[in-house]
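Input sequence (183 aa), recorded before submission:
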Amino acid sequence: MADDDSLSVRPCLPDALRALVEDLPRSAWSAHPSFRGLAEFWLEKHLSFRRLSDLLLRDLRLALDGNLAPEILSNRVWHHGGMLVGGLHDHHGVEDHHYFPAMLRLEPRMDRGFALLDADHHALDPWLERLAAEANSLIGASSDREEAARLLASLEGFAPFLERHLEDEEDLIVPVILRHGMG
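Predicted structure, token format:
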């Protein structure tokens, strides 16, 4: 994988990896006969990660503005943060060990794309560890504004990388699913 393909610098999926999504563009996905099932599930799962991230950002901002009680913030960070971090770890594990190898057998020409997604997962791991540690610190000191501000800053830093990864993964994976009728 080229250095300019890393999650921290790439502005979009590299052109060489867009072949499948150009053949099966996003606008045609939901009408495709193979959409119901795995493709739809994959997109819904990614949407849930986006929503959890957005909920956490909103709640942290509300709390820092004095519009959300510390004990409510602590409960929501515990619940939504746990779902986000744990869900992403689980999702990436299933992808890396089950789906990506199966899809690579179906689309060997996309090996660089699967390597890119695997590298993304490794790049996201330190972010997830940091978010978990900061969320736990906030939960342990729920009225500490500094802890809330620190978690908000980390989540704001993480969110663009998560979005880049989810979007690129969808553009690689969903066309494979649709093309091969998986799931």
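Checked by second reader. Residues 70-106 form the longest helix (37 residues).
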